Amino acid sequence: MKQAEVIDIQTIQDTSLPEITMLPLPSQEELAAQERAEKERKEILKRYRLILRHARPRLKEGDAKKIKKAFEIALEAHKDVRRKSGEPYIYHPLEVARIVVDEMGLGATSIVCALLHDVVEDTEMELKDIEGQFGTKIAKIIDGLTKIKDASDKSLSMQAENFKKMLLTISEDIRVVFIKIADRLHNMRTLESMPRDKQLKIKSETEYVYAPLAHRLGLYTIKSELEDLCLKFSDSATYHAIEDKIKKTQAARDRFIKEFIKPIEEALHRYNFNFTIKSRLKSIFSIWNKMQKQGIPFEEVYDLFAIRVIVDVPLEEEKAACWRIYSIITDFYQPNPNRLRDWISFPKSTGYESLHVTVMSNIGQWVEVQIRTKRMDDIAEMGLAAHWKYKEKNGVSNHESGIEEWLKKVRETLEQNDVNALEFLDEFRRNLFTEEVYVFTPKGDLKTLPMGATILDFAFEIHTEVGARCLGAKVNQRLVPLNYRLKSGDQVEILTSTKIKANEDWLKLVVTTKARNKIREYIKEGKKEIIKEGKEIVMRKLKQMKLAFSHEVLLQLLDYFNSKSESEFFYAVGKGTIDHTLIKKFQDKSEEEKVNRTLPQPNTDVFKADKKTGKKELKEIVIGRQGDKIAYSLSQCCNPIPGDEIFGIVTVSKGIKIHRTNCPNAVNIMASFGDRIIKARWADDKSQVFDVTLKIIGTDRLGLVSDVTRVISNQLKVNITSLSFEVHAGVFEGTISLSVYDTKQADDMTEQLNKIEGVVKVTRYNY
After folding, report:
1. Interior CA angle at 137 toward 133 and 139, to 5°?
2. Which is nearest to 160 in space by CA: 673, 678, 677?
3. In this structure, are residues 273 and 310 in contact, taking their beta carbons and an 8 Å threshold?
4. What tens digit of pLDDT does each residue of 583-621 get?
5. Residue 351 near residue 218 (C-beta atoms within 8 A)
6. Which entry of 67, 205, 281, 449 is 20 to 30 Å from 618 by CA?
7. Between 214 and 147, whose confidence is greater?
8. What DSSP assignment string belongs to 445-480?
9. Distance CA 186, CA 111 (A)
10. CA angle 115–120–123, rounded 5-degree value
11. Would you say residue 560 has pLDDT above 80?
12. Which helix (H) or strand (E) holds 572?
């Protein structure tokens, strides 16, 4: 082998070397960014593959390709976008798609729409592009999921317009609402990264619309989580306090449940049932709600959990199997006959079926046991989505009527599309988000109506003509008036008369959309007759005045009486609202004699006074700041004082109203008028005092009122503006109105008053 030649590097001239461009080494930040990008790429693929794996049993030929195409489009559309949390935006549509698959049981079309649900709204892609690649059906669903850019009526709420658009899709394709709920669920799960004002707005929308809608669609698990998250972001201290107490009592609860179900399990095995037994813990929101309604501490909420027995049997054996299991359970534990709920014979309108029985345990504790089949449990967990899965598999079931009836009512509500968005949303909530009553006709037919329904609602449910001629009714053989509110179990016989006509007063007595719409139709027909009569009166008066019944004269009349249209003017004359004798005087054209029958147009620009400063919008209002030129007022429904968390709502004609974030009207306001909400905070200023009212409850004793006033006036040096006490059976209840600087002073006062002998509870009263 030839010996390698030794080269002395020192002898080589620099000029003999080729030029080499030295690239700088990547910095630590660049290396970290590359590492993060690679980690995120792997995470995105992992999430996408998980969706495909879980959806595979429901996919048909070609579905996987369609989902892949949607994923690639979404990935490209959102590639440079990040969420408030700092995560890649694509995580959001991927998670919505996973919820749609895992928690709702939907298929390929819903997955595609979930992946694309923000593409049209947030990128340059248009609906026609979606339609070209995926077809009309998917394009329509995406359209339903896309927010409206501008409200049709600038004086109304953008939120309400968007809710209306979403809800109008229910009768066409209910998957829009399922995907929207999945979208909201993920947004609520990741709400931590949003600023406080956005948290409250999103929380309010969820509480006002999405949680009730999830409940109505039978998505009980999702509904419970949404409610829990609403409580978490509105009152985190209470949420975490209940959460901690649940954890601390978990071990004792597990031991109790194990002992309780042991004899039931053994018996069901002996009878060869294919079953599962699990416990269901009451949601944190439900626990809090019960504590609030009953005024009890956590320790006194005894129904923290329920036992669920799920049996797998053929459809035709379901009812017999559930009642057989009921018999087995009540052999071991004494049932409470007043707490039996048979949702199998009478399913809820959401399709929910189950047999609920409350039994006494061996240690004297009441326990609710829910008995259901595998099919019933799927519907209870996934609602309408599971219902249609079983409908396709088994054909029409006997228990379908509730769901079909609810969808029929949805369509009736949606038919009323001529009202503004706020009225529409209010109507929808009133009819479809309320609890129900179950009443019977004289022949024993069951009718389901919303809670609060009256005789008139029932009459219009039977038949339009029966409703229009309703004189009254017999309920359980007893005569009742039109405003009687029905209760479950009532048997109702409607009494009619040809002399009765539907009138405007009836609108105050009904709650269902069907009754309201039919009454309006009758009123509209009656209005035509009144307009005709009014027109004839005007023609006669003009003839007496020797004036022609011309377009020019009519315009002068409309101007004189401030009427918007001829029909409005003729109707007012026909009804007698405009005295026809005044028509003779209209020629005088005296401004002082004009009849002002319409409200002035609202001033929608509440910031006109600020235009000199060049500001186009107000981002935040500081309450109590000296020299603040913005017109605002403190709302009387919650009486906010410094220290309270607050927000502002830009009203149409009354400037800015300041509310507490826990005001009883806050959820409604923020959900309906989110585009008019502005941030508000208190100035650090103690030159002003504010009114606050405290409610005091306790046991009566001699000298109690004297002690209360002494603590407030002498010890705390606070001015009392009014004082009221009442005593019933040794229990006193009183209200004290005071002038304070802030919540700290009010809280200190509450703490001191609670120390007085006999005082049980002191709370802020004005909310």
Report:
1. 55
2. 673
3. no
4. 766 654 433 333 333 323 333 444 444 444 444 456 788
5. yes
6. 205
7. 214
8. -EEEEETT-BHHHHHHHH-HHHHHTEEEEEETTEEE
9. 15
10. 100
11. no
12. helix 566-575
Fold designation for 31-146+169-234: Hypothetical protein af1432 (1.10.3210)
The C-alpha atoms of residue 45 and residue 639 are separated, in whole angstroms, by 52
Cα 695 from Cα 37, distance rounded (Å): 58
The arrangement of strands across the sheet holding 719-728 comes to: 719-728, 731-740, 690-699, 759-764
Q: Which residues does residue 454 pair with via DSSP β-bridges, in sequence order?
A: 485
> Which is the CATH superfamily of the domain at 247-398?
Beta Polymerase, domain 2 (3.30.460.10)
Q: What average pLDDT is seen over the chain?
A: 81
CB 383 within 8 A of CB 389: no
The dihedral through the CA atoms of 682, 686, 690, 696 has a sign that is positive
Residue type at position 89: Y
**Residue 176 region, left (φ>0) first, then alpha (ψ -120 to 50), else beta?**
alpha
Distance separating alpha carbons of residues 178 and 283, to the nearest angstrom: 22
Domain boundaries, the chain: 31-146+169-234, 247-398, 521-593, 608-682, 690-764
Active-site amino acid positions: 121-122
Which residues, listed in sequence order, are joined to residue 678 by a DSSP beta bridge? Answer: 648
Q: Which two tokens stand for residue 602?
A: 């609202």
Phi/psi at 194 (5° precision): -85, 155
Per-residue pLDDT at 643: 85
177 contacts 213 by C-beta, under 8 angstroms:
yes
Place of tokens 């008066």: 541
Q: Which CATH code for domain 690-764?
A: 3.30.70.260
Which helix (H) or strand (E) segment is 620 a member of? Answer: strand 620-623
Q: For the segment 515-544, what is each residue's pLDDT rounded down to a tens digit? A: 888 888 888 877 888 888 888 888 888 887
Size of the chain in residues: 767
Answer whether 455's CB lies under 8 Å from 470's CB.
yes
Q: Extract the tokens encoding 664.
A: 């009883």
Q: In this predicted structure, which of 368-382, 547-561, 658-672 has the lowest mean pLDDT?
A: 547-561
| Calpha distance 97→180 (Å, rounded) | 11
Q: Confirm whether 31-146+169-234 and 690-764 share one CATH topology.
A: no
CB 96 within 8 A of CB 117: yes
Please give the pLDDT value at position 598. Answer: 31
Res 27 pLDDT > 70 = yes
DSSP H/E element including 220: helix 220-234
